[in-house]
Design brief:
Length: about 55
């Protein structure tokens, strides 16, 4: 188990070996980690920015 801090909001989370990024995070300290909340928000923003702006 390892405590990790979200790079965006600073929220601390504990991840276990089952986490897909566990090995990556355990190896390098400069790996950017985003919590569930920020990941969802970033995904939402990415989806929105991909959509072309339609003229009203
Ligand atoms: Zn976060």
């Amino acid at each position: 188990m390892m405590e990790i801090k979200c790079s965006f909001c600073g929220k601390k989370e504990v991840i276990t070996k089952v986490h897909k990024d566990y090995r990556k995070l355990a190896r390098g300290k400069n790996v950017v980690y985003t919590c569930e909340t920020c990941r969802a928000r970033l995904h939402f923003q990415a989806v929105r920015s991909q959509q072309p702006q339609k003229p009203i």
